[in-house]
Amino acid sequence: MTFKEKVLVVVSKIPRGKTLSYLDVARRAGSPRAARAVGVIMKGNYDKKIPCHRVIRSDGTLGGYNRGGKKKRELLKKEGAI
Q1: Is residue 52 among the annotated active site residues?
Q2: Where are the domains of the chain?
Q3: Which of 1, 3, 7, 13 has the fewest Cβ atoms nearer than 10 Å?
Q4: Catalytic pick from 52, 55, 56, 75?
Q5: pLDDT band at 17 (very low <50, low <70, confident <90, very high)
């Protein structure tokens, strides 16, 4: 399984109302130094089955989202994550 596939599996398992940091995702995917790579993978993800809006920065800020920061905030608020 490629790193990208591992990342997508990890992110697909983040429950509604919860978040993980890019670093947490990288660690769970087996590459703890690849947090930036997780961000690149999330930026390129347009599969709605993969809840990439649930991946945030380690400092608790939301970070980027390929559908816009406002949409990410709305989704996380709707799910009760923020």
Answers
A1: yes
A2: 3-79
A3: 1
A4: 52
A5: very high
